[in-house]
UniProtKB/TrEMBL annotation:
CDD domains: EAL (cd01948), GGDEF (cd01949), PAS (cd00130). Residues 81-127 form the PAS domain. This is cyclic-guanylate-specific phosphodiesterase. It comes from the Bacteria. The keyword ATP-binding does not apply. Keywords: c-di-GMP, Membrane, Transmembrane, Transmembrane helix.
Amino acid sequence: MTIVRLQRLCLFYLILAVLWVVLGELLVRWLSDNHTPVSLLPFSKGLLFVTFSTLLMYVLGRRHIDQVARQQQAQTVSQTRLRQAEAVFDCTQEGVLISDAQQRILHVNPAFSRITGYSLEEVLGQTPKLFASGKHDAEFYGQMWRDLQAKGRWSGEIWNRRKSGEVYSQLQNLRSISDENGQVTHYVAVFSDLSALKRSREELDYLAHYDHLVGLPNRLLFSERAKLDLERARTDKRSGALLLIDLDHFKDINESLGHSYGDSLLIAVSKRLGAFQNNGMTVARLGGDEFALLCESLNAGQAAALALRLLDSLAQPFQLGANELFITASIGIVLYPDDIEDVEQLMRNADSALFKAKGSGRSTYAFYTQELTSMAQQRVELSSALRQALEQNQLELHYQSIHDLSDERIVGFEALVRWRHPEQGLVSPARFIPIAEENGLISAIDLWVLARACRQMSSWVDSGLSLQFIAVNISSRLFSHGELDMLVSQILAESGLEPRYLELEVTESAVMQDPDAAMDQLARLRALGVRLAIDDFGTGHSSLLRLKRMNVHKLKIDQGFVRGLPGSREDAAITRSVIALAHNLDLRVVAEGIETPEQAEFLRDHGCDYGQGYGFARPQAPAKINWQATLNRAPQSNDA
């Protein structure tokens, strides 16, 4: 009987009792009005009995109604909770498995099937041993069940196997369910798939510690490994070596052929360096074109031998698509632990050694010494002092004569900057020019030299000296300045020098940094009427097609080729080829670094137009120039 029917029945009894009382009262009054003699006692007793019986039935009915209502409400709440639990069970992203006390699987949720690959039908009645990965021993499972029995729960990371056979990591929570007597009736396992999280962590770790382009360890990971090995080397009282490798003139290739070729070259270099990696070695890319090789248990002799093998390997051509590229490298070597306190000092010393290798002509290696640390400190001091040199007129120009090789008469001069330091005296350009290039002062120095040289040449021309030109070196930084032609025009106007007397020397590598822009710049400079020369020809990467388009007046043969004349067959062949090439393009040729009469004679015999070098005269201040200088028959060493 439903609550509604019970409520209706009780209401009926209540109405019946009321009607009974009312009818009884009406009946008594009617009999009284008609003077009918009636004994009311039996009737009253019956009336009271019926009334109280009816009221009792109503009260008992209400109590039953309330009890049934509470039961139905409790049932409704329970059903609601069951529906909610079922919704959570079905919708949760964690896998859920329910088993009986004998670990036989009774039910799983959809997330379980999605994670493991097993459907409910495939696992029903099975035990969790079906998912064992084989990566845990019996002790692991024994401890898990001991915790579960003692505490009623267990949680931790566990490796299981999917239906596909893939082994993956889970974060699992187990609980036992007991009845009112404390007997275990069921087990519930809730687990999360950690494989995606682990992959994400591995990817983040890779991105943080490996170079994305070449796949080698980056500076961060390399520093961590260097720190560990530095500590081990100190504890084990053994030596190790750090080889810092920098590609020579990589910027020229990167900017002339494009960044894609530069990236391909870096990848190819990484593979070659990786071929030398053995146990106890770490090859890393620190950034740009700088690589490092950390070698455990390596002495000085072994480090030098390894550096030579690396240099020979990198000197072999790289085939990148249709292009065959050649590149060399410089290597700085530091032995540790010695006096190395930390990784930062180790890297600083390696930088100093690398700087020494580059200063020795590149394509070589150099070891770190304490002397290099002092030199680094001096570079910092010189950099600060150089800024003051421009303001305090500490720079001065020396001039080296350029001779017509046919009769050895002076036809022009090259202006060379010198720094007369108030405390250190005359500072070699080899020391301060690289510093000026690093700190950005080279452009200001170039303009100062250009203005001073033009004024000096104007003075010589006005005095009646028969000179054809004054040559001034233009750095790659100033040459890349988009308004160089306007600056030159302004300086010529201020000095009063005719443009035909000024010769600007631009290095081949400066032209190759941006060939198209360089061609436009050369064309604008030539339109001013100045002379143009390509300095250090043969040491860069220019092509004959670009050489034809450069539209310059002269080529300067680098002293590296002149030094071996006339004995070196290779230098002689290159020199003859450059002279012939230049003349076929209607260009004049200047050979620099001439020190002996034999060199001058060889060049003259093969048609070289001009020459300069210590064999004729050293650079001098204007007041000390020997205008009657001829070839010095006593050869001098080239130590400028």
